[in-house]
Amino acid sequence: MKLLKRLSVLAVAATLPLTADAHRAWMVPSSTVLSGEAPWVTVDAAAGNGIFYFDHFPIMLEGVGTPPANSNRQPAPLTITAPDGSEAEPQNGHLGRLRSSFDLQLEQKGTYKIAIANSGRVMGMYELNGERKRVMGSLDEIVKQIPADAEKVNIIRSDSRMELFVTSGNPTEEVLKATGQGLELQPVTHPNDLYADEAAEFVFLLDGQPAPGLEIALIPAGSRYRDSEQARELTTDADGKVSIEWGQAGLFWLEAEYKQTEGLEAPVTQRRASYSTTFEVLAP
Amino acid sequence: MKPHLAFALSALLGSSALQAAEAQLTVQIPRLDVAEYHRPYVAIWLENDAGHVADLTVWYDTELRDDEGEKWLKDLRQWWRRSGRGLDLPIDGISAATRPPGSHDLALQDLPAFKELAPGDYELVVEAAREVGGRELLKVPFSWPVTSAADLQAQGSRELGQVRLQLTP
């Protein structure tokens, strides 16, 4: 089962953006701070141009809805971690034309993590007779598939991670532990304890180590109703830390991207890692 | 010992004097002319410079099946953050039913939290949130114990009317 899952991860097509000019992908929750016994949240997952506008494609997720019969895309793995570290299941999954959605019942008190993560994915890109080609698979498979006379060969190893945190009752820390693979968020401020008038601090990790000089984009929801997207660019300090003054309540989309082209083990020519999350910032 | 002398002595000794003090809170819930009216959820608690000190009462829908009324407690968002999210509700002496529009009196000095209240500067916080409505929060600063009579007030603009704290030594 574990092996099967691993294989399907490696075989995944470009379900999440690999390049800066690709569409942005995000999850948007019905709410992130909840009270009461076993409350429900619903989550939409999509990729598109606008942040939190369903204008392009759903993110196909494992165990969420039924892919169309003619689809050749592989769903991305969805992992929901309950406050005690156990796995929780999405419910009422639906795959639509513009978004996928699922429900989650917060049966435990504390913080849940909803993650769409791919690690160690490899992709080969090359040109042959002026035509651009792309191959997926294991590193060995990719190397075998690239013809000897190929030009502009690029072999890219990537880790991508998209996360969402929701809390019933008191925020807890268990699910905030880093896996040590790819880009990750190490909260100093709890991601479900964010307020418009308070700065929040986060450390970004690359393979478990603080990532200094990492570029981060932060975009508040609602860009359709203003002239500017109001995207902010932030950079982590020497300790991999960033401090964010929200300035307003509401949903925010954050994305960090890392790219490395030197010091890599051949035949890999490029290493990429991305992290994105949706924050809900509350009014004080 | 003659009764009046005993009284005078205990007053001098302090602790009994604290118990004699009165803190009368009056919270006005305004009558609103809206198409769909629900009684507000109201949380009343004490804060000081260090943060939350004690909950005094929370009015919410305690009658719904399966504690369904607790689902909206997060809308008392300041209280939820300061205290509510860490509690296992309902709590005897804190949880109480919602109240209709009008003036509601609470004799704070009779509450356990007040009986144990350390001397110092406090804020009495009243937060109200209404289903299909708005939210409002008022604060009334006061010092404890009471040394002289005081009539402290804060005026709400929509979800709360006047909040009045009358202190008597």
Layout of strands and helices, then pairs:
The complex is a heterodimer of chains A (284) and B (169).
Chain A: H1 2-10, E1 24-29, E2 33-34, E3 40-48, E4 57-58, E5 78-81, E6 87-88, E7 91-95, E8 100-105, E9 110-128, E10 131-136, H2 139-145, E11 151-168, E12 183-187, E13 200-206, E14 209-210, E15 215-220, E16 232-235, E17 241-244, E18 250-260, E19 270-281
Parallel strand pairs in A: 2-11, 11-19
Antiparallel strand pairs in A: 1-3, 3-4, 3-8, 5-6, 5-9, 7-8, 9-10, 9-11, 12-13, 13-14, 13-17, 15-16, 15-18, 18-19
Chain B: H1 3-13, H2 15-20, E1 22-29, E2 41-48, E3 51-59, H3 77-82, E4 95-96, E5 102-107, H4 112-115, E6 120-129, E7 135-144, E8 150-155, E9 162-168
What kind of assembly state do the chains in view correspond to?
Answer: heterodimer
Alpha-carbon distance between the two ends of chain A: 46 Å
pLDDT below 50 for ≥5 consecutive residues: which ranges of chain B?
5-18
Query: Mean pLDDT across all residues of chain B, rounded?
Result: 90
Q: What percent strand of chain A?
A: over 45%
* Main pleated-sheet profile of chain B: 5 strands, mixed
The share of residues in extended strands of chain B comes to 35-45%
Strand order, biggest sheet of chain B? 4-3-2-6-7
The backbone outline of chain A, from C-alpha atoms, is globular
